[in-house]
């Protein structure tokens, strides 16, 4: 399916969409002032091993993944606002606590709360973007724009943190809590305004928007699969019915496995690489870490929409395969790069970032295309299982680092990318449910 995304479509963004983008920008910026340095804080404060640091971060993240799925599914049933604001309040409280804990046990508990609240927040937020942008091409632009501003925040955050002196400091978590509280305030205003605007629309226009939204999603059209009829609008499903549908969607399940592995590989940069460089006593460690994070985000900011335009004629899975080749190349580069080669690490991160700019926004669009309208929150929630890869990365990478060394971490990661490429190659052969008749499965 050829992409017809155009910047002129930005005019179709409602005010609520701009608030979502602004909130992502400021909260991710403040988050990345401090969170990437959490492993360094734990090591320097308590002297614990790479495996122990990985166990703390992975344990919290694994728990949050499962909770995140139910957050997405519950937002279909109870509404986005209730779930998002409950998660947001927990998020703010968690980061306030993180600025004050002084023991390993305290860190373990509060890191778990932070991870859980973020996991609950993300799927309803992605579903909200899809809800407020009924046109499929405008929605793709919205998902791409959200990923773009998140990376602008990632680029600004670490360098701003170094400049104002809060990088690696616990007090920096208060800044994250404050910006998130500001976002929740703006979001409450935006939701009220959007609801009033929708209520003023003529009924025939509302029906037209619903039909646009329901005709946008589906199937594996980008996989060259036979289209599956969209289900008519129906009452909200029970959690059990939702789980039954997800259990029959083999394409979704294969995607989850493939993207868990993909996230595991990518996340070695966020956790294992930082621990590897820390233990190797690399000169100018904080500058190198901040520069890698900045380079990662800057490449995405500069190239994301350029790459989207260049790959407009490729299907979603073809774009993802190109991104996977670049991801594998970056892992090989990291495996052979001398530990003190500052610009070598930056070069590897640049290649990784180009792959990321192709991969991750496309994954979000892919899920949006697959999801039935009435189960959109559940599908984005199921996509949160991807983050099992992120969750296991600190533990798996830390153990490999302790027992095999840094080069083996990245060599093994490169091999895992080959497995992901195979899983994507078989997607078009897999069955999906018939959403009109939940007890049936289409075998194409």
UniProtKB/TrEMBL annotation:
Pfam families named among the record's database cross-references: MFS_1 (PF07690)
Annotated SUPFAM superfamilies: MFS general substrate transporter
Lineage of the organism: Bacteria, Pseudomonadati, Pseudomonadota, Gammaproteobacteria, Alteromonadales
Protein's membrane topology: Multi-pass membrane protein
Protein name in the entry: MFS transporter
Biased composition range(s): Basic and acidic residues: 202-213
Organism this protein belongs to: Thalassotalea euphylliae
Keywords (A to Z) from UniProt: Cell membrane, Membrane, Transmembrane, Transmembrane helix, Transport
Superkingdom of source: Bacteria
Protein biosynthesis is among the record's keywords: no
Keyword Calcium carried by entry: no
Membrane-crossing segments per the record: 16-35, 55-75, 147-166, 172-191, 251-269, 289-308, 320-336, 342-365, 377-401, 407-427
Subcellular location field: Cell membrane
GO MF terms, alphabetically ordered: transmembrane transporter activity
Main location, first listed in the record: membrane
Coiled coil: none
Domain Major facilitator superfamily (MFS) profile residues, every copy: 16-432
Stretch list, region Disordered: 199-221
GO cellular component terms listed in the entry, alphabetical order: plasma membrane
InterPro entries named in the record: MFS (IPR011701), MFS_dom (IPR020846), MFS_trans_sf (IPR036259), MFS_Transporters (IPR050171), Sugar_transporter_CS (IPR005829)
């Amino acid at each position: 399916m050829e992409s017809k995304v155009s910047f002129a479509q930005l005019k179709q963004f409602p005010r609520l969409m701009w608030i979502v983008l602004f909130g992502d920008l400021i909260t991710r910026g403040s988050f990345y002032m401090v969170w990437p340095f959490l492993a360094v804080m734990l090591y320097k404060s308590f002297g614990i091993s790479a495996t122990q640091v990985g166990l703390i971060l992975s344990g919290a993240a694994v728990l949050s993944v499962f909770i995140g799925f139910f957050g997405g599914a519950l937002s279909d049933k109870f509404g986005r606002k209730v779930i998002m604001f409950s998660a947001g309040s927990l998020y703010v409280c968690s980061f306030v606590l993180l600025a004050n804990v002084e023991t390993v046990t305290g860190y373990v508990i509060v890191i778990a709360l932070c991870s859980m609240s973020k996991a609950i927040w993300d799927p309803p937020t992605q579903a909200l973007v899809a809800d407020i942008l009924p046109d499929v091409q405008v929605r793709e632009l919205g998902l791409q724009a959200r990923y773009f501003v998140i990376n602008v925040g990632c680029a600004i955050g670490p360098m701003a943190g170094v400049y104002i002196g809060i990088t690696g400091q616990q007090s920096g978590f208060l800044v994250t809590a404050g910006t998130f509280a500001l976002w929740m305030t703006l979001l409450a205003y935006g939701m009220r305004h959007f609801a009033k605007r929708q209520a003023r629309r003529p009924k025939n226009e509302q029906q037209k928007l619903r039909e646009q939204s329901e005709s946008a999603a589906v199937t594996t059209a980008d996989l060259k699969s036979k289209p599956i009829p969209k289900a008519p609008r129906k009452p909200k499903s029970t959690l059990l019915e939702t789980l039954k549908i997800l259990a029959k969607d083999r394409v979704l399940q294969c995607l989850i496995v493939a993207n868990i592995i993909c996230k595991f590989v990518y996340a070695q940069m966020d956790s294992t690489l930082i621990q590897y460089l820390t233990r190797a006593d690399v000169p100018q460690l904080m500058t190198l870490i901040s520069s890698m994070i900045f380079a990662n985000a800057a490449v995405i900011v500069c190239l994301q929409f350029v790459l989207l335009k260049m790959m407009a004629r490729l299907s979603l899975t073809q774009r993802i395969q190109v991104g996977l080749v670049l991801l594998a190349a970056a892992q090989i580069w990291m495996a052979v790069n001398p530990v003190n080669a500052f610009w070598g690490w930056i070069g590897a991160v640049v290649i990784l970032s180009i792959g990321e700019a192709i991969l991750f926004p496309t994954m979000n669009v892919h899920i949006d295309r697959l999801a039935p309208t009435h189960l959109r929150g559940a599908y984005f929630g199921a996509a949160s299982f991807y983050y099992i890869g992120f969750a296991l990365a600190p533990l798996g990478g830390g153990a490999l680092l302790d027992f095999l060394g840094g080069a083996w971490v990245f060599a093994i990661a490169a091999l895992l990318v080959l497995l992901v490429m195979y899983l994507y190659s078989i997607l078009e052969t897999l069955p999906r449910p018939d959403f009109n008749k939940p007890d049936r499965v289409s075998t194409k």
